[in-house]
Structure formats: structure tokens, C-alpha cells
Specification:
alpha/beta, seven-stranded mixed β-sheet, two-stranded antiparallel sheet, globular
Amino acid sequence: MIIDSTKPVRRLGIYFFYDKDGIVDNYIPVLLRDLVKNLEVLVFVSNGPISKESKKKLEEFDPVIIERGNYGMDVWAYKEAMQYYGWEKLSEFDEVLLLNFTIMGPVLHSFSDVFRAMESKNVHFWGLTKHHGVDHDPWNTCKYGYIPAHIQSSFMVFRSDFIKAKAFQHYWEKLPMVNRYVEAIGWHEAIFTEDFTRMGFKSDVYVNTEDIKDYSDYPLMLFPR
């Protein structure tokens, strides 16, 4: 699916946040200030209450705020935020973005550069960066017995035809409860791209690191520049 950029692109962004004291640090409004230029709706979902002062910081973005319990990590926060809207409503958007508070920026480029570059890609879902996978499972949580190449889940975008797909909906509806970091990786992040690629869905990433995958399976960490 290629985005029709001749008309306004409708995007909903779901931003996951967690801080044990509910404090939104200043790097977050910096990121959101640029990001919301590309969004029609911002959903700010927090695993725990957000402080009164921090909610004031968020007012300029007019977000839908969801405060939930601190369970299920980011995976279930995304799941419940999507359930809040429902599949029919979500599929009315051209793209639905999931991202979390581990991302900082923008630094050299606006998010508009990223979205514009990806609009012409004929894909069902895409992300910023890829992990190139390893031939074993260091956490013993991945059903494949190894870590497949995968789009990293800190920034993923789903297009409307993908959201309409029963396979996509079934995936989230049947997602098991995630209690540990290694489960979030093995039960979601590491398998999502592989699962849907095997079903025939197409994906891509904004930052192509195929040229250095022989040096590192995790370029984002070891070759961030």
C-alpha cells in the first residue's frame, strides 16, 4: 500500500510512557512538538499516573491521555490503546504509529522527512530501524528458537489495509500477558516482522543498515551515527 500524498495524510500516534514518579522529562515535549505536525491525533498512554505538572506540559499537544496500571509493559499499553479506538476506527487512518519514550530527538531531521520518505514505499508496515537477528535465542522466549531479523518496536507504523487484516487483529487480540522484558522481546518484538512476512505482508525500514549487518546484528546500539 502506497500512501496518497496528494491529499492530507491521516495519522494517529500512540506514544507509550512510563516513569515511576509520573514525571514527563523535557526531552519528551521536544520530540512531540515535532512529531504532532504529522499527526491528526496523539494518544499518550502511561503505565501509571502522570503528575499534575507533567500533564500541564502535555496540554499544548491536546492528547488523548490513557493512564493504566503498570502491567504488560509497552506491548499491552499499545494493545489497550488500540482497543480503546477499535479496529474500525483505527482503519480510518492512513497510518497508525506506535512509539515509546526511549526515543529522543529529532536531531538533524524533522519527522516529516521520515514520513515523506516512507509514503512512496509499497508496504503494510514499517519502522525506523532493524535488528538483523541472531542464530540463537539468548532469552529462550522466542518460538522460532532464534531471533529473526525484525523491525525494532520502539517505532512502528501500520497502514490501514494492514489494520483491517484479520491476521493483524487476531495477533493483538490473542497476545499473551507480558510480565518481563525478555517476554516483550520474545513474544512480540522479535517475532512480529517474521510472523507477518511469512504471511505475505510487506515491510521496510527508514534507516537501511544492510551494508553493516556483517559488523553488527544491532546497528542502532553499536553504530548509532
